[in-house]
Give the backbone structure.
Amino acid sequence: MGAQSAGPLVVGVDSSTQSTKTLVVDAETGEVLARGQAPHTVGGGPGKESDPRQWWRALGEALAQCGPAARQASAISVAGQQHGLVTLDAAGEPVRPALLWNDVRPARESARLIAEGGGPEAWAERTGSVPGPAFTVAKWAWLCAHEPAAAAATAAVRLPHDYLVQRLTGQAVTDRGDASGTGWWAGSTEAYDPEVLDRVGLTPSMLPRVALPGEAAGTVRTNELPLPHGALVAAGTGDNMAAALGLGLRPGQPVLSLGTSGTVYAVTTRRPADPTGTVAGFADARGDWLPLACTLNCTLAVDRVAALLGRDREAVEPGGDAVLLPFLDGERTPNLPRATGLLHGLRHDTTAGQLLQAAYDGAVFALLRALDQVSGPETAPGTPLLLIGGGARGRAWRETVRRLSGRPVVVPEAGELTALGAAAQAAGLLLGEDPAAVARRWGTTRGAEHPARERDDAAWERLTDTLTDGAALLGG
């Protein structure tokens, strides 16, 4: 476990699409004393599904890798992938595999719900977001339409992080951040929306209690994991909300995250409501708001293009006029759930390295288009972008962001920011402090600073024109 810790120990958990990561952290200093990681599997076929019980097994494996440090923790918090639909029977067992955030099969149900609910403007005003196919409400509507027996057998509906918190504590608890991605929690009232619940056949008793910021979900009541019985369990939150906590974000600081999905977000004190659906009006985990835009196709899509070209992911070359919109799995921003990748402008002298660079450009462009809407007036022009996620470690990703944004970029040294944010939430609960202030004390945004460079307006224009002119081929 290393040197003697200065303060009590806390555990931060990141339960993502691909794996569970755990960190044991000194609550006073932010020093990571132990870490673990265990993989998840996602089912193939037209949907994206996972058995929730494997998340629990992965949590146990990751904690076991932390050794004695996990057994000395005083508090734990779980951050989880947003939007996932976990259906439980009366005994608390999964009825079927969970539908994950990146399952775009509910596109038809999403469109129907938007129309029945008064259109995009009404949804944005009421809940803060227009419920695209990723949102849990659309997934539940899809289940009711396509698997009515499974829906009828469902006694309780949970998000991925709620499921883990319930198994830790025996309590059905969520938080406002993760709840704001369901489509049935209204930002306007900060409560479940009875009209939406009625429309999709849910009752409040089927849903977890929404804890207040800083409130505990309960204490560890299971003996299945290497954790102290009775340790405090925070309410937890969604993965993006946890990363915002991990960075100690203040209003006006934009973040661009490059992972399996790409996200751009910022904390704001004003409740967002974007009727175009580009920006989701999420709540954060503290009491403010976290307007966010998300793309489905980010690092995995670009890596797939690199593999098709037989090139290392960093082997990009400048120049050329080719445009590649790498919407390999449909897309969420822009909202094109049935889209495929689109390549335009290919010439005899186009090189493989230029094509790979075009894939980077297409992925980054989709995120940066939403940046101004997400940032809002609280963000001063020229404010550096915080670049996080696995892609932030890659030179090609970083330089593409600089070239297409025209902004300075800071790449924090701290990795595993979702798990670190969960640890900050646990530390805040334990110490009675604001978790974002805890993260700022830990210095989580320290890192390499890269100055602004002139924006590549020609590339931006090519991308804009191709997205507009290719609308019929992309097939919303």
